[in-house]
Amino acid sequence: MDTWAMSERCPCGTGLPYDECCGRAHSGTPAPTAEALMRSRYTAFTLGDVDYLTRTWHPDTRPADLTLDPDQRWTRLDILSTEAGTPFHTAGTVEFRAHYTRGGHRDSLHERSRFTRENGKWLYLDGDIRD
């Protein structure tokens, strides 16, 4: 991982340093909420961390192969809403908009993601793409 990530603000938008935010999840501490997992997965996309994305994807819905587009650069995450997904729940949803650039063009992904908590760990289950 790049050394910038340890001291600079986390890409997920909390304003915290990476090592105090998503860096904890990336190094093995389970995300405490569905939103925290969503943020850590977004950060994994920005860093190209396919291993983390695979580990935090529910095995029932995880693709056999995950290849990230090297030309896609994630630039900002906006959390639009959350439902449940606290340490007291076993399911939760997070609606977000993730902004990116690709081929010199700006765009965004708007998704309502579903998460499940199994054995004390939140996992990404699936998502519905929104307009």
UniProtKB/TrEMBL annotation:
Domain YchJ-like middle NTF2-like, first and last residues per copy: 33-127
Pfam families tied to this protein: SEC-C, YchJ_M-like
Coiled coil stretches, renumbered: none
Similarity comment text for this entry: Belongs to the UPF0225 family.
PANTHER family linked to this entry: ADENYLATE CYCLASE-ASSOCIATED CAP C-TERMINAL DOMAIN-CONTAINING PROTEIN, UPF0225 PROTEIN SCO1677
Protein name in the entry: UPF0225 protein Aglo03_21200
